[in-house]
């Protein structure tokens, strides 16, 4: 579609000559019998609207198109000339449409300064943010969990009776050790030992920095209140002995001496000087609740297994100060190893106490048995009883050995049952004394593990805690089950013992004939052997436990000490700067996009093309001299040249040989229809045509007043007069051009619409057609009142005026309604008040400045402007 045509002075003579020749030729061929100027206008101006440097190329193209139409002149296109009228616009044609992407880029490029400012601000904000954001360092270390198979106590006993070692060496599982390392009790121990819930910041500079080794004083927290919020204090060192501490939140201040305890907002603290003390300066002291300090340290600390197949635990702590972070992580590992070793020593001590108590009891029983045996031998004068009953004894040895073993197990079970049942307080039970039933020993080990777990939880929870209470319930249940197991095991041993005794009685019956002295002697001997074996067994275990206790070491050791990275891992400066740059680039795009979405007024040519198909007759730029209504005084201005372009375009949309009536209207007041009609009428008059301008905006007549002419007598007087008034009395010659005449509106009537419907309006216009070449009518806005539609029946062409950044897009619906319903004849659009400098990239701008026009308005070009102009897409 042709949208606009721009004509230049040096091309007009050539255009007119070629047009006359081409019209005559087509008239001879009878191709344009109905409208002889229709095709000629198109062909001539399609070739002539480009710059003069394109003369030969466009004239050649024009000739080819003309010959093409001549060759098809015998067809039936004459009957379908309206189809061409719908597709051709006699004002302008672009050689190529801007793509949608190019249009967006051009639109944003016109606001390049916003992008520059936004990027500079965002990059500056990113730099400021980096200046205030503290650095984060990663401190790492490694701990290895030793394999229990290489334990010292087991190697000393060569694996013999090694079950006793499990009483004080609970197997270290790497996953469990990870949980212990992250436990709250261990974290709290680290915070308490290093006083981490009190932090000192140097407030003398722009950026607060935490002080550690070079802190001038230390804060000792004697008693922290239960307040869940951290307390922040401003501390000012007055001199060598005194300081002033201020609570800015509560507006409370205290002046005190170093080394003396003070009660400050329920917190009992002591400020002590250090070796790096300086007798001046401002500092900030933050005291955190223990729970908050635990949470912060736990969030920054992580423990994980390097490999599931290995037992190496990786430790990492993220901290702002790398040196203090190393101290914290190293202290955490030291406390962990100390707790691990203390648990093993505590278990070994409990085993030693149990064995000592059993040795005392068994030793006393053995001493009684040996005393009774000695008295029996003396009283009965027995020297070698074995020789007398050798034969019988040898036959009963097998059963006696079995009975002895059973007696030992039964004695151990009885002792353990008494031990378990002797006290209400749960105590650890040695399982390795039960050597016959391994399942029973496993149950004892699980019971001991529960007791040890309870001891570990006591450091983190109070006795009334739900976790401790539940665990105590489990221990009681396990203890009752263990008692039942001991009783069942004892019953089984007693049954076995009864069977062995029965079998032994058979042999005893066989030796009944032996002297009774020998039988009594054998009874004493058996009791002595039983007690002696039990006593020696306990002595052996006591010695093994003593050796293991002396050689006890932790099941874990430090593989790598705490060490910080060479550089902080956060903040990532390059990423933040990139985000700042992207934000500076995205923010203007977002703002401009939102502005575009919220825009409801016509801003560029695309807004018109999207909402209407009405042809565009011309465009009028914004005038620098806003006070001047007429532009004839500045013939070299852009506005004057654009008025001439509309004047030239009218030649090809009007019928020559008769007077043409052109009506100007708009959707609302203030869009510039009066300005355009006045200047267009003056421009046509300058070309030698007689022009009359009717001011038929009867509701708000301001046209003649704006140019200093009287409006006392005019159209209203003509219409309401009973006598016929000669048009000569209505027409007033302008003072600026002898061919330019005006008819004022006259007084404002009470019924403008009814007045315009009078037949005398048609008579007046017919009379003016005879006397003038052009009759221009300035009417009221068609979007507000119906006056223009009443006048339209007398008009040949209707020009609908739009104004950039003033006319609403929705008001183009009025234009479409007039165009589609044929309420007006030959409807054309004229866009007014275009800002060329702002919209040259987005659909407006006609290149006048490149051809010598508006020299007074052209600003001095700079290097930057030249570069930006090269970046702008060419629009024609």
Overview of the molecule:
By secondary structure, the chain is of the alpha/beta class. The chain contains 29 helices and 21 strands. An eight-stranded mixed β-sheet has the order 14-21-20-15-19-16-18-17, with helices on both faces. The chain has a six-stranded antiparallel β-sheet with strand order 3-2-10-5-6-7, with no helix packed on it. Strands 11-12-1-13 form a four-stranded antiparallel β-sheet. Strand 11 and strand 12 (312-319) form a beta hairpin. 29% of the residues are buried. Mean pLDDT is 76; it is low at 1-18, 25-98, 150-172 and 838-876.
What's this, in brief?
With 876 residues, the chain is an alpha/beta fold. The chain has 29 helices and 21 strands.
Helix content: 40-55%
Stretches where pLDDT falls below 50 for ≥5 residues? 1-18, 25-98, 150-172, 838-876
- Major sheet: 8 strands, mixed
Principal-axes shape call: elongated
Kindly report how far apart the N and C termini lie.
14 Å
- Report strand %: 5-15%
- Largest beta sheet: strand ordering: 14-21-20-15-19-16-18-17
* Total E-strand runs: 21
Put simply, the count of helices is 29
Q: Which tags fit this structure?
A:
876 residues, alpha/beta, eight-stranded mixed sheet, six-stranded antiparallel sheet, 21 strands, 14% strand, elongated, disordered C terminus
Secondary structure elements and pairings:
Blueprint: H1 9-28, H2 38-48, H3 55-71, H4 81-87, H5 100-109, H6 112-132, E1 137-145, H7 152-156, H8 174-181, H9 184-194, E2 198-202, E3 209-211, E4 217-223, E5 231-237, E6 242-247, E7 252-257, E8 261-264, E9 267-273, E10 282-287, H10 290-300, E11 301-305, E12 312-319, H11 322-380, H12 385-388, H13 390-421, H14 438-457, H15 466-510, H16 516-550, E13 556-564, H17 573-598, H18 605-611, E14 616-621, H19 638-650, E15 660-666, H20 673-686, E16 691-695, H21 703-706, H22 715-720, H23 727-730, E17 732-733, E18 740-743, H24 752-756, H25 760-771, E19 774-778, H26 787-791, E20 797-803, H27 812-820, E21 827-834, H28 836-839, H29 863-871
Parallel strand pairs: 14-21, 15-19, 15-20, 16-18, 16-19, 20-21
Antiparallel strand pairs: 1-12, 1-13, 2-3, 2-10, 4-9, 5-6, 5-10, 6-7, 8-9, 11-12, 17-18
């Amino acid at each position: 579609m042709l949208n606009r045509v721009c004509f230049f002075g040096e091309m007009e003579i050539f255009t007119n000559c070629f047009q006359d020749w081409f019209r005559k030729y087509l008239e001879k061929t009878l191709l344009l019998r109905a409208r002889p100027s229709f095709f000629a206008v198109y062909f001539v101006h399609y070739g002539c609207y480009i710059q003069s440097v394109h003369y030969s190329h466009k004239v050649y193209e024009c000739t080819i198109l003309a010959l093409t139409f001549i060759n098809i002149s015998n067809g039936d296109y004459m009957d379908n000339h309206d189809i061409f009228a719908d597709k051709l616009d006699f004002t302008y044609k672009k050689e190529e449409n801007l793509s949608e992407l190019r249009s967006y880029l051009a639109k944003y490029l016109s606001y390049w300064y916003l992008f520059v400012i936004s990027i500079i601000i965002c990059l500056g904000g990113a730099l400021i943010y980096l200046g205030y954001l503290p650095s984060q360092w990663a401190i790492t270390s490694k701990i290895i969990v030793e394999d229990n198979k290489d334990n010292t106590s087991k190697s000393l006993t060569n694996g013999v009776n090694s079950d006793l070692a499990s009483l004080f060496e609970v197997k270290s599982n790497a996953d469990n050790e990870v949980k212990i390392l992250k436990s709250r009790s261990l974290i709290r121990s680290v915070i308490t030992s290093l006083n981490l819930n009190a932090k000192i910041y140097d407030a003398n500079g722009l950026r607060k920095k935490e002080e550690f080794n070079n802190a001038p004083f230390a804060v000792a927290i004697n008693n922290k209140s239960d307040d869940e919020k951290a307390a922040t204090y401003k501390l000012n060192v007055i001199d060598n002995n005194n300081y002033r501490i201020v609570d800015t939140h509560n507006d409370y201040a205290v002046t005190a001496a170093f080394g003396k305890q003070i009660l400050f907002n329920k917190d009992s603290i002591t400020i002590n000087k250090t070796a790096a003390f300086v007798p001046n300066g401002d500092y900030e002291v933050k005291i955190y609740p223990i729970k908050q300090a635990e949470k912060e340290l736990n969030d920054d600390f992580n423990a994980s297994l390097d490999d599931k197949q290995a037992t190496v635990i990786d430790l990492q702590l993220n901290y702002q100060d790398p040196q203090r972070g190393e101290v914290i992580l190293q202290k955490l590992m030291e406390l962990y190893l100390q707790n691990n070793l203390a648990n093993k020593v505590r278990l070994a001590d409990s085993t030693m106490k149990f064995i000592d108590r059993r040795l005392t009891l068994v030793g006393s029983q053995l001493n009684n048995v040996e005393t009774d045996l000695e008295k029996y031998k003396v009283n009965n004068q027995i020297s070698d009883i074995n020789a007398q009953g050798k034969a019988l004894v040898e036959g009963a040895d097998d059963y006696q050995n079995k009975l002895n073993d059973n007696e030992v197990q039964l004695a151990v079970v009885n002792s353990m049952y008494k031990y378990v049942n002797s006290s209400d307080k749960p105590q650890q039970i040695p399982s390795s004394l039960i050597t016959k039933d391994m399942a029973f020993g496993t149950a004892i080990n699980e019971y001991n593990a529960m007791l040890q777990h309870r001891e570990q939880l006591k450091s983190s929870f109070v006795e009334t805690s739900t976790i401790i209470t539940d665990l105590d319930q489990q221990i009681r249940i396990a203890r009752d089950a263990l008692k039942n197991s001991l009783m069942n095991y004892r019953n089984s041993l007693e049954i076995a013992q009864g069977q062995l005794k029965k079998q032994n009685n058979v042999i005893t019956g066989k030796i009944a004939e032996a002297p009774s002295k020998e039988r009594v002697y054998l009874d004493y001997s058996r009791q002595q052997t039983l007690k002696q074996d039990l006593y020696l067994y306990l002595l052996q275990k006591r010695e093994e436990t003593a050796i293991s206790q002396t050689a006890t070491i932790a099941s874990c050791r430090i593989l790598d000490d705490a060490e910080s990275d060479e550089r902080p891992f956060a903040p990532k400066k390059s990423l933040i700067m990139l985000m700042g740059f992207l934000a500076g680039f995205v923010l203007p795009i977002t703002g401009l996009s939102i502005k575009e979405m919220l825009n409801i007024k016509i801003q560029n040519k695309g807004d018109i093309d999207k909402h209407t198909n009405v042809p565009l007759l011309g465009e009028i730029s914004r005038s620098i001299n806003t006070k001047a209504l007429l532009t004839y005084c500045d013939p070299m201005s852009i506005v004057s040249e654009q008025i001439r372009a509309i004047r030239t375009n009218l030649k090809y949309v009007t019928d020559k040989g008769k007077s043409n009536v052109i009506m100007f209207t708009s959707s609302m007041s203030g869009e510039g229809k009066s300005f355009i009609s006045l200047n267009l009428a003056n421009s046509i008059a300058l070309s030698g045509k007689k022009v009359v301008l009717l001011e038929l905006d009867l509701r708000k007549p301001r046209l003649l007043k704006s140019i200093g002419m009287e409006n006392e007598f005019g159209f209203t007087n003509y219409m309401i007069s009973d006598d016929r008034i000669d048009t000569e009395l209505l027409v007033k010659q302008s003072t600026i051009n002898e061919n330019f005449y005006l008819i004022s509106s006259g007084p404002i009537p009470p019924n403008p619409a009814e007045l315009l419907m009078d037949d005398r309006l048609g008579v007046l216009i017919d009379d003016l057609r005879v006397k003038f070449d052009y009759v221009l009518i300035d009417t009221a806005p068609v979007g507000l009142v119906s006056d223009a539609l009443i006048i339209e029946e007398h008009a040949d062409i209707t020009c609908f005026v739009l104004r950039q950044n003033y006319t609403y897009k929705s008001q183009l619906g009025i234009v479409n309604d007039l165009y589609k319903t044929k309420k007006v004849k030959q409807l054309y659009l004229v866009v007014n008040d275009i800002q060329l400098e702002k919209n040259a990239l987005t659909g407006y701008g006609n290149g006048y400045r490149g051809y010598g026009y508006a020299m007074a308005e052209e600003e001095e070009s700079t290097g930057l402007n030249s570069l930006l102009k090269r970046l702008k897409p060419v629009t024609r």
